[in-house]
Amino acid sequence: MLDNSPQRTAALEVKGLKIYYETPAGDVRAVDDVSFTLYEGETLGFVGESGCGKSTASMGILQLITPPGRIVAGEVRLDGQNLLELSEEELRRQRWEKLSLIPQGAMNSLNPTMRISAQFRDVIQTHEGKQPKAKLKQRILDLFQTVGLPARIYSMYPHELSGGMKQRVCIAMGIALNPKVIIADEATSALDVVVQRVVAQTMLKVKKALGVSMIMIGHDMGLMAQMVDRIAVMYAGHIAEIATVEQMFRRPGHPYSQVLIDSVPSLTERQALRVVEGITHDPRNPPKGCIFQLRCPHAMDVCRREPPERREIEPGQEVACHLWQRQPDGRYADVRQSA
Ligand SMILES: Nc1ncnc2c1ncn2[C@@H]1O[C@H](COP(=O)(O)OP(=O)(O)O)[C@@H](O)[C@H]1O
Ligand code: SF4
Ligand SMILES: [Mg+2]
To answer: Does pTM top 0.90 for this prediction?
Structure first.
């Protein structure tokens, strides 16, 4: 159960993160002023359609952006330390040991010419130095057990494993060095529906067993809602809304959150909003004002003039949308209802 009390401790804080890709026609603003806090022990989901900047943000948090990409601004605080200020050497230590990423498509980047055991030995010994053989083997077998993999895959090659097993291998690698924070980018997306659920359950089991904080990235609002404590909805490099799963489904504050919720199959009897599909503006030249205005059925004049700030419309629910206005009693109300 999510502890909603204000005493929660931050495991990871991201402030004002901007990551742009240079192209001949101008910078693509893949991540544009993203701020959020991941609390200790929680699972935070990032949802949004393809191209909204989820993978770029996760790579940025780990400082793995390479040209033509660059981090333009921001802070990434882990244990109070800004990772963007560390030297490459210090960063290498923190990465994987404190903060690990299971990148999108990880299971396809396992080395096809190396046995699974050798790939684990590499990861562990690169960070911790040479280890006694028997101890190392036991540690790898324990990792297999944590993610529900049979010991017999120890000497196998990646091509001998199913997709679900390969994905579990990647999860086991992500936890091999006991990080505090794990980011899993579309860890279940490439799998079929049944395996998706099994792998999702494995991740939750791992999270519980290790007591880590986790960011899960995906594009399926329905699947995400079953796995996480809070959801951050991302649109075109911006966070549109952050809320608990319960708040998000009870009363989504942002029109784009509503679109994602309406796309969940079991909820299709809801009246779907009529919106244009896909990111419509040129990512090198975003419109002035709200980033969602070209698709939003509720866009007003102010939306075309000023970008909406993210505001807490009730404790734990933050929304970046002009529809929410502060009332004389201090509370926020949706102008459509209060008009
Ligand atoms: N190497 C690159 N060069 C130029 N643009 C890129 C590059 N990589 C990603 N992008 C752009 O950045 C945006 C965000 O991409 P990405 O982070 O992969 O989104 P997501 O993971 O949400 O699908 C997209 O508009 C994408 O086209
Ligand atoms: S700020 Fe305006 S355009 Fe943007 S989501 Fe809200 S109502 Fe729609
Ligand atoms: Mg991605």
So the answer is: yes
